[in-house]
Amino acid sequence: MRMPVYIALLISIFLSGCGERKIQVTGKVLLKNGKPLPGGMLVLSPEAGGLKGGARAYLETDGTFVLSTDAAGDGIISGKYKVLVVHPPKKGGEDAPSGPMLFHPKYSDFATSGLVVDITPENHLLEITLDPPSSRN
Question: Which long-range contacts (CB under 8 A, 24 or more apart) does 56-64 make?
Fold first, then answer.
């Protein structure tokens, strides 16, 4: 008769350890000259198998951001992530043509950006610096 209670207890203990907690990650994106990237978006994708999902963050005009996965500012689970940067749109919204490139276009593709972040409870404040568009890499 007491067996279902023990099974329910074991299941609840097992399930409570299954879901990794998300870490709130904040940071800033800077250009090589030290100025903030005034808008745009960061997108994170797992570097290797085993991690599911990714995260995104819209950049404020001062270059700051808060990562989100399912809801605004909810964070991301620990792991290594590739990073790409989306250029800020020109005034007039997303459909307006973009202005001059503020950073090297390599950062706009996961395959070429070279940016990888390792998110841990200890590493949750990020600073990302981007090369100028004329850099030869």
Answer: 59/29, 59/88, 61/36, 62/28, 62/36, 62/38, 63/28, 63/29, 63/30, 63/36, 63/37, 63/38, 64/26, 64/27, 64/28, 64/36
User: Does some domain include residue 116?
Assistant: yes
13 part of a folded domain:
no
Residue 9 to residues 3, 14, 17, 102: CA-CA distances in angstroms?
A: 10, 9, 13, 55
Number of domains in the chain: 1
Query: What is the pTM (predicted TM-score) of this model?
Result: 0.76
Residue 89 neighbours by CB under 8 Å, 6+ apart: 39, 95, 96, 98
Domain ranges, residue 26: 21-130
Return the pLDDT at 84. 96
Q: Check residue 20 and give its pLDDT.
A: 74
| CATH number of the domain encompassing residue 35 | 2.60.40.1120
Helices marked H in 22-129: 110-113
The residue ranking higher by pLDDT, 18 or 119, is 119
